[in-house]
């Protein structure tokens, strides 16, 4: 599970996170370790997409 790349251009902001079928299954089955790593990646993606601070969609998610 890892962030593959971040693309932030005018009008488009995307982050691509890659995970294996096994990692996805572990997350959906409630693996605390995998869920923790997933949250870490989401926070890192948010930081990359919003380098000057978190936007209205992510601020309350923590």
Your description of this structure?
The chain is built from two helices and two strands, in the order ββαα. The chain is of the alpha+beta class and 62 residues long. Strands 1-2 form a two-stranded antiparallel ribbon. The longest helix is centred in the middle third of the chain and has 18 residues, at 32-49. The chain is elongated. The mean pLDDT is 84.
Profile the largest sheet.
2 strands, antiparallel
User: Which assembly state applies to the chains in this document?
Assistant: single chain
Strand order of the largest sheet: 1-2
Rg estimate, integer Å: 13 Å
Structural class of the secondary structure composition?
A: alpha+beta
Q: Helicity level, as a percent range?
A: 40-55%
DSSP summary, beta strand count: 2
| % residues in beta strands | 15-25%
Our measurement of the CA-to-CA distance between the termini, rounded to an integer number of angstroms, reads 20 Å
| Global morphology | elongated
Give keywords.
62 residues, alpha+beta, two-stranded antiparallel ribbon, 2 strands
